[in-house]
Amino acid sequence: MNIASPDFLAKVQDKRADDRAEDAWIPSSCALCYGSCSILAHRVNGVVVKIEGNPDSSIGKGRLCGKGVSGLMCHYDPNRLRVPLRRTNPKKGIDEDPGWKEITWEEALEEIATVLKRVRAEDPRKLLIQRTTTVTASRIPFQTFGAAFGTPNISTSGGGLHCGNGAHLISGIMHASWSIVPDFQYCNYAMYFGASKGHGAGHASNSNMALAADARARGMKVVVVDPFCNFAAAKATEWVPLKVGTDAALALAMCQVMVNELRIYDAPYLQAKTNAPYLIGPEGRYVLEPGSPRPLVWDGEKREARPFSDVPAANMALEGEFEANGVKCRPAFALLREHLKKFTPEWAQSVCTVPAANIRRLAKEFATEARIGSTIVVEGVTLPYRPVAAVAFRGNQGHINSVYNFFAVDLLNQLVGAADVVGACLGFAPASLGHPETQRPRYFPKAGPDGLMTVGTWMGYHYPYPPERPRMPQKMGLQDLFSIGMTSPFLDATDREAMWEKFDLPYRPEVLINFGANLLLSIANRRPVEASLAKYKFMVSFDLYLTETSNFADIVLPDCSYLQSWDSRSMMPFILAHPAGMGDWSWPIRQPVLPPEGEQRRFNEVLLDLADRIGMRADVNAAMNASLNLQAPYRLEGDRRYSYQEICDIDLKCHFGEAHGLAWFKKHGVMTWKKKPEEVYWRPFLDVRVPIYWEFLLGIGEEVAAIAEPRGLPIRREFYQPLPDFIPCRSHCCTAPGFDLYAFYYRDTVHTNSYTLENPWLDEAAKLDPFSYTVAIHAQAGRKKDLADGDLVWIETESGKKVKGRVRLTEAIHPEGLAIAACAGHWGDGMPVAKGKGVGFNALLDLDWEHVSPVNLNLDLCVRVKVTKAEAVS
Ligand code: SF4
User: Fold this and answer.
1) 348 CB less than 6 Å from ligand 1?
2) Phi, psi at residue 386, to the nearest 5°?
3) Which of 52, 387, 589, 867 can pair with 188 through a Cys bridge, CB separation 3.0 to 4.6 Å?
4) Is the CB–ligand 1 distance for residue 331 below 6 Å?
5) What is the signed CA dihedral for 249, 254, 255, 260, rounded to 10 degrees?
6) Whose CA is nearest to atom 5 of ligand 1?
7) pLDDT (tens digit, 9 = 90+) per residue, 271-318?
């Protein structure tokens, strides 16, 4: 057709009219963090010009955080990958140029499939799958791929190792949940141990933000215990600065004041909902009904020891010494009470620096405000009312004392019955009766034979109680030996080979498939991670950009962003991003707002293609059925090929009925229905107990030691005791002269992991924040070192690790603290906006057995440092 012809001009005009007509708001889900807030993307003439919150969803309720609105800058970044790349330089290292050359998808997939086929035939455990919680947010595709392949080595990189091993474990055991948060609608006194729930970073932060603000306006007192007065503490009624890593000392001293000085605790709750009345024998173990797993309690009315389930809760003794099964025994609560006596406020002051008088006052306020015994009517239902909550998250449990730090905080809630009732500390939606039409998804906690709460596999994760028995490891991370550790340092640790040899690991990792994780930034000092990455014989990385870590890959595949992707479950899992308390359930989807550019492909479709090439489609279908809990007639069949869109459609129909498949969700974006009081405040409705005495930890410790110690790995048994204690971090034991500050990092509200540092809007916002890219030191401590704002300093550890940064002096930090924001310190050219920004705290971290919790493998995230002006160091 002649371009000057009337036909052509008419077509151009029609096209322009069509383009002008395109002005659409498309519902989907954010993925700038794992909050997965519901969004509306405004697309005009094929270009996304704005992202707003979707008011139809409870996930964000029409609001987004600064990261969410900036998402289009991540999508449109000119540095995005658009073609598959293959390295030509076989040498791998931080300073090696991979010598990238463009290849076709066919070449890439054939090479990957050939390697995977060989490894699967030899030993599928040689494959490690690593992912991040953002960038490639959905876990279902690679989890099912890994399960079908036959590898147990599926992991989350640094984010997981740093944040969840203690928080998720204890939230799971005590609240059947992934995390805990105050019931903002009714809570009157919230005590945060470093957590920023509803105040910035962390789970469901945006969803809870408005609730937290409304609660403060209503008069909820917020006490924030934190070495740094930033996102949560700056908005708090009271900031309680404490020495880094000493949360357990403060929380245990508060428990001591409540139980032994004030004698305020919720006895009926402890009798009915915990193992406080279970009789404990001389070895610290339960006294059981002979031949049965049922623990005995002392029946005060019948004056004899009887199985817990045969005795009315009100008759169960919490105090006293008895004889049962021929041994002397005491209720667990009596042992707790005795145990707490050593944690006096005066002792705690010497550890955490919070004055004893303040500790007593805080304990009294918390215990009094709990209003033990009171009730309230919510939607016509009379429920226990305990309007106090003590919550914690990453910072509190990011230490060698990970388990006890978090356990001690939750003990405050348990002692006053402030657990999953109105106004109290709530787990994230552990009970769901499902959509009114289909009753799906449906799950709730149940009692095991010992009466303690258990839910088996919980939304795709193994639930932490009862824990799996320790055994000789088959996983690279040794989590089958350290069976309550979720993520592990031993994928990259300097002593990983020594540990594998010690435990006769019958294979070595050979292939790494990485989904968007930037391991070199996110775990610890980059040298051990460099060494472990360089050892893989073959590495594939699905990425949006060329990161420092993708430079170790043999093949890099250009992934689609969240604005180009499908997902029937944008939250991972369903419960994760819901705001606390009453309101609505929402099930949003993620759908493409824009098509792939260049050669970009969606990673979930690529995995299905690879499954076909390897010949494991039937295994993937079976894994999908299990992981998505698909029921007939919606189960995936045999080795039939489904596109990922078809699988999403099936998943949605299975949960919401034939009329509510992908076509319905594409239009509406989210399914919403009302929460019920018995879902939100489930604890009084279900006959389950939680352990204030972790008897099982003794057994685990014995079993771990029985395997590890004959192989030359001593196990510190003080970490495996049933009652929480204060155990100092290595940083507390450093006495080297000049190492006088405790360095730690915190999540910055404008950044997620290391990824968003590449976003120019967020970079601009971070530059406006005095602390995002600097090193915060107390003004007095800084002046003693002759430091002023803007000075360039070296921060150095006793083991010689160091990093450079610019000082920002402030009164809003503990005098012995040194705070660094975010997961910064990029040096690669693939993310030029991020390059050189901020301070890379992780460079200071050692990564070995000596620096992890010997019970849950959490990495110790504080380190004692010396600070010197940069010019003074050669
Ligand atoms: S909280 Fe997370 S998911 Fe929600 S808008 Fe912000 S970045 Fe997006």
Assistant:
1) no
2) -135, 85
3) 387
4) no
5) 120
6) 68
7) 999 999 999 999 999 999 999 999 999 999 999 999 999 999 999 999
